[in-house]
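Record 1 of the preview.
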Amino acid sequence: MTPKDRKHIRTWYWCGAALVFIILIIGGITRLTGSGLSMTDWKPIMGAIPPLTEAQWEEAFDQYKQFPEYQQVNRGMSLSEFQFIFFWEYLHRMAGRLLGLVFLIPFGWFLFKKKFDKTQLRRALLLLVLGAGQALMGWYMVMSGLIDVPAVSHYRLAAHLLLAFIIFGCCVWFALDLKEKFQSAGDQAARLNRWLAAFLVLLVIQVIYGAFTAGLNAGHIYNTFPKMFQYWFPPELWLYEPFLMNFVENMVTVQWIHRVVGTVLGLLVIFIWLRSFQLKTSFTTKMWALGLFSITLLQYATGVFTLIYHVPIWLGVLHQALAMVLFGIVLGFIHFLKEKPTIPTEFVQG
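->
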């Protein structure tokens, strides 16, 4: 690939990451406003056209009335209230369609012009598969709330959220791999790698339990911190049988695990930051460690306030958005530690 091709493909990856982040925010608002089940069918093409006339709105509202969410939760809501929740789900789906176009149109152009090398073609095809899977998972998640119980499966919600993080992470990593210049963090800084790997694994677990907490509405109980009311270990912690079901079904246990893993992440990031000084790493490495520490601290604080104030929409969305920012920063830090002070051959020739 030429330097110009690398730059264009890198920009394409960054655009993908930015759009995934925006969709995450819209998705958070959609979930917290209870809008996710307002569109009861999935039409990938024709679904791009919303109701336009009064009759079409009435028809969409009548269709919504046939499903459990209206019958059990929103019975008696007005048409204007329905239009509000419909708007957020529609916006969420349209943002997903926009992401699809932003991916497919440049992909077709790069492919037609033979701009990809083998590595970038494989990566682009991977993103294509992940994007298609995410669209299907989104509808599969919505379907779980259209039968009997008007709430989406927290397992499917977690899978949907985790796929978004994977797509975002791939876009960020692939873009970083196409940087024009690389610098070495040094042998000493490389010793931080195993701790960052541990941080990343714990962060993924935390994202999953964040989705479980949201899906089970576990953020609306035990709204005190640091104790859960007067308990460090609340009495309902291990009520379910079999025992392992507590880890995925018991809302008290799920919230408790989310607290504990968040605290472990906070302690680990303090260690990583201090370790960067102990190893006498470069200024850039210390700045990466400081950035990771700062965002983790901010994320922890927003999580605490989200809980204490019973999950206000803006705080819940901010908490979710910061999780993706934190994920991007830890990936960037890991990538920086693996970089070497070399410039690709084509840049030297150019």
